């Protein structure tokens, strides 16, 4: 499925729609999933940054060309949000995702430039049942988004609360 | 200054516009700054989430009411991005900010609900000159966004590259 999002951002999840991830029980440490691609165009980079991160190298092509980046780059929050979209489509499940308390370490090792496509991969790092709430578990996931040159442009370790599979007939 | 952003998000930075932060030299560990407020309305919460984080409790008021959150909550990425806007206005400086390699630990200890206003505070945790690039330093900042009840809704430690003050006549 190719999702054409508002403002030119597009997610391509063709062929990666069935990981079989529905409940906590399905997230097994070590398992790694290709979750789809996301492409950034200049209009979406500028529109996001004008609203949330209006630094010259995110919103002004002329100032960006004169900056150390040598041209426009996407706000890191735009990159993170776009990667999230792919994860909602292909890693988290609407029937079990209970949200997130946060992430351990976010890194943007390479800038994302207009025209770049990032490939998003999610690897289960840890999965443990909640001690206080027996209906759910805590999943830690290494999220990596890599550009066409194979360079990582985003990396983070996310923490998610996920419902366990309901008992049959329960 | 009250910035009315697209989609109903508004930043109020009235009275907090002059921290005197222009270059790396101005960021002193221990210094803490009130950077302004940001208010979330329901339309902006839903619009952001439809684009980037379309989980039921972010986009569907009826499904959200039946979820453990008991009502719509903002995507954590929306919260982070809105906090960034306040920091760009009142903590980072266009003449010296060189971007960020990432953050150490992001937490969303309390959900952000439509109508909530967060007060953003930035505290300099560490400031050191770059060993490899003498024109800049690395600033670590504890960012906290607190709701009207005094509960923290966002907390993160950001890393920023910041130019040192140019030598006079240099």
Structure description:
The structure is a homodimer of 170-residue chains. Chain A is of the alpha+beta class. The first copy, chain A, is built from 4 helices and 7 strands. In chain A, a hairpin with a 5-residue loop joins strand 1 and strand 2 (10-12). The mean pLDDT of chain A is 92. At the A-B interface, helix 1, helix 4 and strand 4 of A face helix 1, helix 4 and strand 4 of B.
Keywords for this entry:
elongated, 33% strand, homodimer, 170 residues, alpha+beta
Q: What is the fold's blueprint, element by element?
A:
The structure is a homodimer of 170-residue chains.
Chain A lengths: L1 E3 L5 E3 L19 E8 L2 H11 L3 H4 L1 H6 L9 H15 L11 E6 L9 E13 L6 E11 L5 E12 L7
Antiparallel strand pairs in A: 1-2, 2-3, 3-5, 4-7, 5-6, 6-7
Brief rundown of the structure:
2 copies of one chain form a homodimer. With 170 residues, chain A is of the alpha+beta class.
Class derived from helix and strand content of chain A: alpha+beta
Q: SSE order of chain A in H/E notation? A: EEEHHHHEEEE
Cα separation of the termini of chain A: 34 Å
Strand content of chain A: 25-35%
Helicity level of chain A: 10-25%
User: What Rg of chain A, in angstroms, do the CA atoms define?
Assistant: 17 Å
Average pLDDT metric of chain A:
92
Within the largest sheet of chain A, what's the order of strands?
A: 1-2-3-5-6-7-4
Largest sheet of chain A: 7 strands, antiparallel
Instruction: Please report the two chains with the greatest interface, counting residues with C-beta closer than 8 angstroms to the partner's C-beta.
Output: A-B, 42 and 42 residues
DSSP summary: helix tally of chain A: 4
């Amino acid at each position: 499925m190719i999702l054409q999002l508002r403002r030119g951002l597009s997610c391509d999840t063709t062929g990666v729609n069935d990981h079989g991830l529905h409940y906590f029980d399905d997230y097994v440490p070590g398992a790694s999933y290709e979750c789809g691609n996301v492409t950034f165009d200049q209009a979406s980079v500028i529109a996001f940054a004008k609203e949330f991160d209006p630094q010259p190298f995110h919103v002004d092509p002329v100032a960006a060309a004169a900056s150390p980046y040598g041209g426009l780059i996407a706000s890191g929050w735009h990159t993170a949000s776009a990667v999230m979209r792919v994860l909602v489509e292909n890693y988290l499940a609407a029937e079990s995702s209970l949200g997130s308390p946060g992430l351990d370490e976010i890194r943007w090792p390479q800038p994302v430039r207009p025209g770049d496509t990032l490939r998003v991969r999610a690897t289960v790092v840890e999965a443990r049942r909640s001690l206080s709430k027996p209906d759910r578990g805590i999943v830690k996931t290494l999220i990596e988004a890599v550009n066409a040159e194979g360079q990582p442009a985003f990396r983070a370790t996310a923490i998610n609360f996920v419902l366990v599979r309901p008992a049959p007939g329960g």
